[in-house]
Amino acid sequence: MHRYYFDHNATTPVSPEVLEAMLPLLSDVYGNASSVHHFGQMARQRLDQARASVARFLGAAPEEIVFTSGGTESDNLALLGAGRGGHAIVSAIEHPAVLAAAEQLSAVTKVPADSRGVVDPQDVRRALRPDTKIISVMHANNETGAIQPVEEIARIGAEAGIPVHVDGVQVAGRMPVDAPRLGVAMYTISGHKLYAPKGVGALYVRKGTPLRAILHGGKHERGRRGGTENVAGAVALERAVEWMMEHGAQEAARVAALRDRLEQQVLARIPDTHVNSAGAARVANTTNLRFDGIDSDALLIALDLKGFAVSSGAACSSGAPEPSHVLLAMGLTREQARSSIRCSLGRSNTVEQVDALTAALVDCVAHLRKLSPVYA
Ligand code: PLP
Prior knowledge:
This protein is 42% helix and 14% strand. It has helices at 16-27, 38-57, 71-83, 96-102, 121-127, 150-160, 179-182, 220-223, 231-269, 296-305, 325-329, 334-337, 351-371; strands spanning 4-5, 65-68, 87-91, 107-111, 132-136, 164-167, 186-190, 201-205, 273-276, 286-291, 308-309, 340-344. The strands form 3 sheets. The protein has a 7-stranded mixed beta sheet, with helices on both faces. The chain has a 3-stranded antiparallel beta sheet with strand order 9-10-12. The radius of gyration is 21 Å and the shape is globular. The protein starts with a strand and ends in a 5-residue tail after the last helix. The model has no long low-confidence stretch (mean pLDDT 96).
């Protein structure tokens, strides 16, 4: 049976060029980048080079890049490292890596999203308090793809003298990012969402941003993150972002056409279907589809049996009985939220796969609706 992968927001495979670039760092150039001898210096050189490439990808200076173990650690470092002892403003549609970290601070205000899944910057302004130490709003939502007005939020933060962190995990590699131009103090990226392996990420930290380490140990990463550097991971991330700088725009246009084709076909062929966040600007690869009267987990399993991998919410919360907090924050009912699936496209997908997924959706939705006690 064929297996078609439509879950690139959960993770992506390591691309051949990334694997090729990182392998020598696991076998030949294995020194500890903090060692003074030749082996250490070889590793240090590659780490510095990787840092320069990741910095260029984000429009930053090399010393503004902290390598981390991924998106979760970058988000935690930003929130806990800059917000300790204070009040945080986050949006209600953030990834748990931000929401759970914010809960560790003294106080947190969650600003809402509208029915399109977009945050109003004025709500962020209204939530400011004298003890606010950090604002964190994601660049694009992982479930709906809705792009958030982070530039405007960064301006509000700058006026108030509060650092703004942006979780860009679902944007990096899908749209060009210039962190200084966005005006943000910190920006999170994660390797495994852009064809590098799991276990590597980075946090852009604008010069002068007060940030304390959350992993205590050696003075690695300019004292911002203790722990022997993952040079192979950094080099993998370097190769991944280099590919994106060269081919990202073309690939995004290709994937956008596929996503639009999928939405048009599904809306035309399946009645009582909606695109969540349709009214918002969205990253090119993501669609969140709602089928009235369907249970999304049943649909996910039916599609999996036919060889199609999609998601019924954020991957990390799949299996949890709760409906998506993102869709609820947009004002959907629990039933509506539980009848929505996410398809996120990527490099492996083709027109033929999109057409096959459409046909599978037509079959599965019709079948499940026949069995549905709520679909009239
Ligand atoms: N932030 C967002 C928006 C995400 O989608 C994810 C992963 O799904 C993360 C953070 C966590 O990243 P990582 O899996 O690299 O820890």
